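It would be a great kindness if you could assist me with a short task in structural biology. The full record is reproduced below for your convenience:
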Amino acid sequence: MNALASLPGVGRKTALRYALSLLNSSDEDVKHFTDSIKSLKENMQYCESCFNISDSKLCEICRSPKRETNIICVVEDIRDVMAIEATQQFKGLFHVLGGKISPMDGIGPSDLKIEQLLSRLEKTEAKEIILALSPTMEGDTTAYYLFKKIGKIKGIEVSTLSRGVAVGDELQYADEITLGRSILQRMPYEKAIHG
């Protein structure tokens, strides 16, 4: 129960339910469960190109001939890759930084996969880099740092996700950064209603 409770988001009551469920499971089901966990630790690795998780040297996304290789979306971690992939809207490649610059937490540019990104850009025919980082001070700092670094490489356009007040949210509940950016990036009302 203590081992299960050590997982993120699993409280003691849930851990107890999981432990009792495993106790009541067949030997075959428990063996399959434990073999899966063991396989995760032994066989999963990081993609040599983008640093996404993979069961081979290159992840499924980097291996796919259907992806647009000239567009690279830079994200903080693997969960961001999963979130963007779930939209089924992005057809390019990814680069996982492994975090964001956060001096307060002792994380600098050398602690992230930034040099690997720059090296990758020198070797590929990338035309656009999308900075899909969280809209926090640390995310903005990381994006600005990357923008300055990538700006030295000719022929690469740097873009970012558009930000604004979420549909369905009331203006009074929007945070100041989001609201400020929404005002600065405003568009004519007529264009907004006619799409």
